[in-house]
Amino acid sequence: MAEKDIDKIREYTGIPASPGIAIGSAFVYDNVNFWIEERNIPLEEVDHEKVRFINAIDAVIEEIKALKDKLEMTIGKKDASIFDPHIMLLQDPAVREETFAIIEQGKRADFAFFRTTRKIIKAYKHVDDEYMRERITDIRDILRRVTSELLGTKTSSFASINNLAVIIAPNLAPSDTAHLHSSKVLAFVLDAGGRTSHTAILARALGIPAVLSVKGISSEVNPGDTIIVDGTRGKVLVNPSESTIEHYEVERKNIERLKKELERLRDLPSETSDHVKLPLLSNIEFPEEVDAVKFSGSEGIGLYRSEYHFLLNEIAPSEDDLFRDYSKVAKMMNPMPVTIRTLDVGGDKISHLFEAEPEDNPFLGWRAIRVSLTHKDVFKRHLRAIFRASGVGNVAVMFPMISCMDELDETREVIDNIKNDLRHEGIPFDENIRVGVMIEVPSAVMIAEKLAKKVDFFSIGTNDLVQYSVAVDRSNNRIANLYDPFHPGVLKMIKMTVDAAHDNGIPVSVCGEMAADPLATMLLMGLGVDELSMVPSFVPQIKDVVRSMSMENARELAEHALECESADEVRVQIQKYGKCDLD
Ligand code: PEP
Ligand code: MG
After folding, report:
1. Quick count: other Cβ atoms within 10 Å of Cβ 555?
2. Which residues are CB-neighbours of 405 under 8 A, at least 6 positions away?
3. With a threshold of 0.90, does the pTM exceed it?
4. 520 C-alpha vs ligand 1 centroid, how far in Å?
C-alpha cells in the first residue's frame, strides 16, 4: 500500500442501525447547513411573490403525498404516516401568515420561508421532548423542498447520483430515506440519529445497511472517497486499504452466499448432529416483515415488538388498528406461533403519546410494563387486540421488563378482566393463550422460580439483561467495551433462569441480539435454552451452526464457560469446542 494511502485511512464507529455490508464511493449530502441569503424585492412584486410561495407549498404537498403513497406500498400505511406532520406543517395557517408578513416587508419568498422555519426550529431545539426535537429534521426537509421549488432547482435529493453510492450526511429526513429504496443507494452513514429515529426504523424496514451517530463524519469525508459500511457492527471505514476492501468483499459475498443457501437450509430441520432440536424464530417490528420471516425458514415469530405503532403515529392506535395488524400477522403465520410483546416504550424509545417528564436515568425509569400499568386504558386496549388476534392464529403474549412479582400479579389481574369482558361480549379468543414474561432484569432472574409458577414461558431479553447486570447503558459508546453478553455473570443468570423454568416445566427462549450471534449459539444451547429468536436474515447462519454441532459438546462447553473468570476466557472455550465439532 502506498504511504499516502495510510494517511487517508480512517475508521469510525457508530450505532449499528441496519445490518449488512456495503462498499462504494461517498455521496456527501449536506441538508443541514442550509442557508438562504437575504434578498429584497420591489414592493409591487409582493403579491406575485405570495402567489409563488403558495404555489410552491401546494407543489410540495403534492410531492410528499405522492411519496407517501409510494411508501405505503412498500412498508405499509401506518409507517408511511410519518409524513403526516410534514403535510400538517405545510398547511398550517400560522406558518403561511408569518411568511406572508416577511414577504410584505419586501423580502423574497425563499428567504421569508427560511426565516419562518428557522424560528420554529429554534423553538423546537429548546423543547425537552425528544420526539419534538426529532421533528427538526422534518422541518429542514420541508424547507429544502419548498426552496428548491421556489428557486427552480427542483431535483429529487438523490437524483444526481449516477452510480451506486454510500450516502454520508449530517442527518436524513424520513422522506429522504424513503427515496433510498428506489434510488442507487448502497448504504448510509449519518452524524446524528439513534436506534429509534424514524430514519433507522425505515432503514431496517427497507433492508439498507446504516450506521448512525457517527459524530462529524459528514464534514470529514470527501465526495468520491471509498467507504465500507458495516451496518451489523456499526463500523465505517474511509479509504480503506486494498486488503481491507478484499476482506469485506469476502464477507459481503459470504452474506450473499448465505442468502442463496437459504434455499437449501430453509426446509432442513434446525437440529444438532445428535438430533436435538433448537427451533429458530424471528423478531419483527412491522407486519410487512412476515414475508422475510417465511423466506428465512423461521419456525415462528418469537418477538413481535409492538411499540412502533406508538412511536410513529401522531395519535394513539385504536384497538381495531392494532387488531388489524396482529390478526394479519397471526393468519399469515398460522399454525406457527406469534409472540406479541406488549408496549416497551421509555428508555431510548420515547413516545410522545404519553406525557412523560424527562428523567435522569431513563433506562432505570418509567419504561415498558411500568408505563402499561400506569396507563391501564392503553394497556387494556392493547391486550384486547392481542387476545382477539389469538382467535385467528397461534398467538402468545409476553410482558417486558418485569422486575417483581407485584407487576406480574397486577398484569394477570388485567388479563383476567379482559378475558371476562371478551367472553361476555362473545368475542372469540384463545382461552389457553400462552402468557410469558421477558427476563431482562437481574431481580427477575433471582425470583425466576416464583415467576415460573405463574407463566407459561420465559423469554430472555439479553440486550437489557446485559445492560442491567453489568451496569452499562446499552447505547453508550464510551463504555461499549464493558457491554459483553459473554460475561460469566450474565451466563450464570441465563443458567439460573433456564433451571428455574425447567424445574417448573416451562420453556425458555432468548430473543436479544445474543440469539443472532453465531459464537453464542452452542453456548446458549448448552445452557439449556429451548429456542432462539432473531432478525429473520440471521436465521440461516444460526441454523448452519446448530446443524454443525453436537448437544454433547454444547453441554460440556457450557459447563466450562460457567467456570471461566472472564468473557475472553469464555470466547477461548467457544473457539475450542467449535473446532471439535468441525473436526
Ligand atoms: C432485549 O432486551 O434483549 C430485547 C429483546 O428487547 P429490546 O431490545 O426491545 O429491549
Ligand atoms: Mg428489552
Report:
1. 16
2. 447, 450, 451
3. no
4. 17
- Let me know: does 574 contact 549? Beta carbons within 8 Å: no
**Cell (9 digits) for 58:** 401546494
Measured from the CB, is residue 307 less than 6 Å from ligand 1? no
Which region among 31-45, 99-113, 213-227 has the lowest average model confidence (pLDDT)?
Answer: 31-45
Distance CA 353, CA 349 (A): 12
The answer to whether the CB of 355 falls within 8 A of the CB of 420 is no
List, for residues 34-53, the tens digit of each pLDDT value. 667 678 899 999 999 999 99
> Tell me, what DSSP letter sits at residue 287?
G
Q: How many CA atoms lie within 13 A of 476 on its CB side?
A: 14
Strands of the sheet containing 226-230, edge to edge, are 10-13, 235-238, 226-230, 21-28, 165-169, 185-190, 210-212, 15-18
Nearest CA to ligand 1 atom 6: 461
Q: From the alpha carbon of 512, which atom of ligand 1 is closest? A: 3
Grid cell, residue 534, equals 432473531
Single out the residue of 483, 487, 490, 488 nearest to residue 510, CA to CA.
Answer: 490
CB 111 within 8 A of CB 102: yes
Amino acid at 557: L
Task: Name the nearest CA neighbour of 104 among 148, 48, 38.
Answer: 48
Q: Which of 360, 366, 364, 361 is nearest to 346 (CA)?
A: 366
